[in-house]
Amino acid sequence: MILESYKTKPGRGAALLDYDLDGDMDIIINCIDESPQLLENKTKTGNWLTVLLQGTSADLYGVRVVARKGDRTWSRIIDGGSSYLSQSTSKLYFGFGIVSEIDSLTIYRHDGEPIIIHSPKLNQI
What we know:
Elements: E1 11-17, E2 26-31, E3 37-39, E4 47-51, H1 57-60, E5 64-69, E6 72-77, E7 82-83, E8 86-87, E9 92-97, E10 104-108, E11 115-118
Antiparallel strand pairs: 1-2, 2-3, 4-9, 5-6, 5-10, 7-8, 10-11
């Protein structure tokens, strides 16, 4: 990532999100005595999928989502991870690069059978 006109600022905390909805992660930094600073990721993005689950934070904490393509797997877990005075989004981001389709997306919940979505379309939320 190339930082254009970057100025060093003191900060406390950072949050990850897809600010511009292009499938890659951007960072927002909570600066001291100044406005927050957005570091927008401008690298070329491959195929991606963003998963937004419905429920309270207590229901979603620890939920695991696994994407599969043949014998390859990608796994994400909703956790309480955050930074000082900051909280990242609870959306789960998957980057697949040149993989153009996946076989399934499985959601492993605490209170029931896994939910399987077959052949979800990529490059969307």
